[in-house]
Design brief:
Radius of gyration: 18 Å
Number of helices: 6
Helix content: 10-25%
CATH class of the largest domain: Alpha Beta
Order of helices and strands: HEEHEEEHEEEEEHEEEHEEEEH
Shape: globular
Number of domains: 2
Largest sheet: 17 strands, mixed
Number of strands: 17
Strand content: 35-45%
CATH topology of the largest domain: Diaminopimelate Epimerase, Chain A, domain 1
Length: about 280
């Protein structure tokens, strides 16, 4: 049966967090509408809308809302920190509150607005055992048996963090997909290259699983901060310079908190003809 939205059109928002851009669809009250085929079509920057990730807002039991994330290749993403911040900002304004609870594939999360107006989201504690990250076999996650001596961290999705002398010099377009598909990562992996600038500041570039090079990655920033702290390079709080701006991470007792800029760029409606063609 064709979803009613395919006959009436489907509203969406375009948002970004530090240049990490998203299509956001509010499916509350109508049931989930996204499919791999529709996500793939919408992710096309020439024939669709274009995005790094798509976030679908859903109804949730015991929380203010749920979030499901899709990559631009039509696959699902288990976590997306910047999209979570953007949607949480929207939902706080929508609900008239300063704190919201949400459910993702990672589990229950919390976001809250700080006194300066920024939205912080608790991304939960990092996953550090090889099965949860996940890795294909039991190896030292702090020193993976790969070129560059990277660190593996799970943040609801897998990350492979490399520390380098010069992040700008890294051939991300070549190394990113090669590492993403390494057999050590059964679910593929996000790939980060980070340079230490000071004990509380880093430069990070990222290749996102299922998407490619992006201007920012919230879960990647969290994973990089965790990896650097575990290696003794930084303290629990760090600012990360990414291609699209500045993200901040604070690893507290209750989880890894993330903040940064958010923007709601425009609203639109997907036409009925477009939806019908990509059901």
């Amino acid at each position: 049966m064709m979803d009613s939205s395919a006959q009436t059109g489907l509203p969406f928002m375009k948002m970004h967090g530090a240049g990490n851009d998203f299509v956001v669809i509010d499916s509350r009250g109508r049931g989930a509408v996204m499919t791999p085929g529709l996500a793939l079509a919408l992710g096309d920057r020439n024939r669709g809308v274009g995005f790094d990730q798509l976030a679908e807002i859903t109804d949730a039991v015991g929380a203010d809302f749920g979030l499901v994330f899709w990559n631009s290749d039509g696959s699902q993403a288990g976590a997306c920190g910047n999209a979570t911040r953007c949607v949480s900002d929207y939902m706080m304004r929508n609900l008239g509150v300063e704190k919201v609870s949400l459910v993702t594939a990672r589990g229950g999360l919390v976001a809250q607005r700080a006194a300066d107006g920024r939205v912080w989201v608790n991304m939960g504690q990092p996953q550090l055992d090889w099965q949860s990250i996940p890795l294909a076999r039991d190896v030292d996650h702090l020193h993976l048996p790969l070129a560059g001596d990277p660190v593996a961290v799970g943040m609801g999705n897998p990350h492979c963090v490399h520390f380098v002398q010069d992040a700008e010099a890294v051939d991300l377009a070549t190394l990113g997909p090669r590492i993403e598909h390494d057999l050590l990562f059964p679910q593929r992996t996000n790939v980060e290259f980070a340079e230490l600038l000071s004990p509380c500041r880093m430069r990070m570039r990222v290749w996102e699983r299922g998407t490619g090079i992006t201007l920012a990655c919230g879960s990647g920033a969290c994973a990089t901060a965790v990896a650097a702290h575990l290696r003794g390079m930084i303290g629990p709080r760090v600012a990360l310079e990414v291609d699209g701006g500045l993200l901040e991470v604070d690893w507290r007792d209750d989880g890894v908190w993330l903040t940064g800029p958010v923007a709601r760029v425009f609203d639109g409606v997907l036409t009925a003809d477009y939806l019908a063609a990509h059901q």
